[in-house]
Design goal:
Blueprint lengths: L1 E13 L11 E4 L2 E6 L1 H10 L1 H7 L4 E4 L2 H11 L7 H12 L3 E2 L4 E2 L3 E4 H19 L3 H17 L4 H6 L22 E3 L2 E3 L6 E7 L13 E19 H7 L4 H17 L6 H4 L7 E7 L22 H19 L5 E3 L1 E4 L9 E2 L3 H12 L2
Parallel strand pairs: 14-15
Antiparallel strand pairs: 1-11, 1-12, 2-3, 3-9, 4-7, 5-6, 8-11, 9-11, 10-11, 12-13, 12-14
Helix pairs in contact: 1-9, 2-9, 3-4, 3-5, 4-6, 5-6
Length: 372
C-alpha cells in the first residue's frame, strides 16, 4: 500500500532555503520561474520536527562523519586510557573499508546509523581492546566481522527505514562485500510555487547604539533576497517497503508513517526565520491511500495560478489541484485507491475528495482504509 500526501502551503515573505549565493532557491517549471524548497531541506525539517523527534527518542538514527571520535570518546568515558585510541579505532574501520582523514579521524562518508548500534560498536571495541592493542590478527578479523553484522542491522529504525541509507564503500574491502544500504520507504519532492515568483530585495540597516550623536549614518547596511509563494508539496510512503525495512515490525511501521505524515504537514524550514518568521501552516492537505502507483499533482500548476478579485492565491491553487486530480481519476484506472481524505482552511470546492475536519481525522481515515 502507498500513502500519498499533497500539501498547499502559502508562506509570507521569507528565505526558507538558500542557494550558494544566499538567494532563495528557484527553478523553472512550465516555462516560468518558481520558488523552490529542496527535498533535502524538507526532509531535514521533518526529521527535526518535535512530533518525529518524539518517536526517535527510543528508535532513532544519527547522521554523522564523527563516528570514530564518538566511539573513542565513549570508550574513554568507560575508563579506557589507551594512547591514540582514535587511531586504533580508525585503523580497524579503514581495514574494514571505511576510511577517515584529518586529526579528528572523521570518516570520508556521512554515516546514517541508529543510536543503539553505536553503543554496540563501543561495547565491541571495549571487549576486544586488549587483544587489539597487541595486534592480534584473529581478533581484528573477528571485530571487523562483528562490526559488519552490527552495521547491517543498524538501519532498523524509523528514520533510516523511511529515508534510506547509501554508503559508498570499497567493494574489495570486508564491509564493501556486505549490503549496508537500504532503499528509502518514502519519496519527498522539491516543493515548487503554484504561482510565478520574482525575487525581491530587503535593504536593511543596523544602528550603532554607542555612536556619538554628532556622527551620522548606520553602523551597518546590507541587502537580503526573499520571496513569498504558495508551495505545492508532495510526498509518499511505501508501507510494504517500510515494514520490510523495519524487519516486519508492523506496529513500529504504523508509528513511523503516522509520525512522518504529521511532521511532514507541520514541519517548516528554519532558514532566516529569526528575521522573517514565516511560520505559516498548510491551508490544504490531501492524502491518498492506494494499492499501487503514485501521482504527483505538480502539473496542475504547469500554468501558474493567479488570484482574482473573488479568490485568493490559495483558493485558486486548491481549485487547480482538485480539478487536475479529477481529470487524472477520470483518465486512468483508480480501482486501487482506498481513500482520499482532505481538509482545507479556505473556502474551496473539494469535489471528488473525502472531506474531513482536521489533521487527526485525516490520519484516522488513512488508518481505517489500511485496516479494511
Amino acid at each position: 500500500m502507498i500513502i500519498e500526501l499533497h500539501i498547499l502551503q502559502n508562506f509570507a515573505p521569507s528565505c526558507l532555503n538558500r542557494d550558494d549565493t544566499g538567494a532563495p532557491k528557484e527553478c523553472e517549471f512550465g516555462g516560468y520561474r518558481r520558488a523552490r524548497i529542496s527535498s533535502q531541506c524538507i526532509k531535514r525539517a521533518i526529521r527535526r520536527d518535535s512530533v518525529f523527534q518524539k518517536l526517535m527518542e527510543a528508535n532513532g538514527g544519527v547522521r554523522t562523519k564523527q563516528l570514530i571520535p564518538e566511539i573513542a570518546k565513549r570508550l574513554t568515558s568507560k575508563g579506557v586510557k589507551t594512547d591514540k585510541l582514535s587511531k586504533l579505532v580508525s585503523d580497524i574501520f579503514d581495514e574494514a573499508g571505511i576510511s577517515s582523514k584529518g586529526e579528528d579521524e572523521r570518516t570520508d562518508i556521512l554515516f546514517f546509523i541508529d543510536k543503539a548500534s553505536i553503543d554496540k560498536i563501543v561495547d565491541l571495541f571495549h571487549s576486544y581492546l586488549s587483544s587489539l592493542e597487541k595486534g592480534n590478527k584473529e581478533t581484528r578479523s573477528e571485530v571487523i566481522k562483528t562490526l559488519g553484522e552490527i552495521l547491517v542491522e543498524s538501519v532498523r529504525v524509523p528514520d533510516i527505514a523511511l529515508f534510506g541509507r547509501m554508503l559508498a564503500i570499497n567493494p574489495d574491502k570486508p564491509l564493501g562485500k556486505r549490503n549496508l544500504n537500504i532503499d528509502a520507504a518514502c519519496q519527498v519532492a522539491h516543493a515548487i510555487s503554484t504561482n510565478k515568483v520574482n525575487t525581491e530585495f530587503d535593504y536593511f540597516t543596523a544602528v550603532d547604539d554607542l555612536q556619538p550623536e554628532e556622527q551620522t549614518g548606520a553602523g551597518m547596511v546590507g541587502t537580503m533576497e526573499f520571496n513569498s509563494a504558495c508551495y505545492y508539496r508532495y510526498a509518499n510512503v511505501d508501507l510494504g517497503q517500510l515494514k520490510n525495512n523495519l524487519n516486519g515490525d508492523a506496529q513500529l511501521a504504523r508509528q513511523a508513517w503516522q509520525a512522518f505524515l504529521r511532521a511532514a504537514v507541520l514541519a517548516v524550514p528554519t532558514g532566516k526565520q529569526t528575521s522573517m518568521s514565516a511560520q505559516n501552516p498548510p491551508d490544504f492537505v490531501f492524502a491518498v491511500v492506494r494499492e499501487h502507483g503514485a501521482w504527483s499533482l505538480a502539473n496542475a500548476f504547469a500554468k501558474p495560478v493567479y488570484p482574482d478579485k473573488d479568490n485568493s492565491l490559495v483558493q485558486q491553487s486548491v481549485v487547480a489541484l482538485v480539478s487536475y486530480w479529477n481529470k487524472l481519476a477520470g483518465a486512468y484506472d483508480v480501482g486501487g485507491i482506498k481513500a482520499r481524505p482532505a481538509f482545507a482552511l479556505t473556502e474551496a470546492p473539494l469535489n471528488g475528495l473525502e472531506k474531513v475536519e482536521n489533521m487527526e481525522a485525516l490520519i484516522t481515515a488513512i488508518d481505517k482504509a489500511l485496516t479494511k
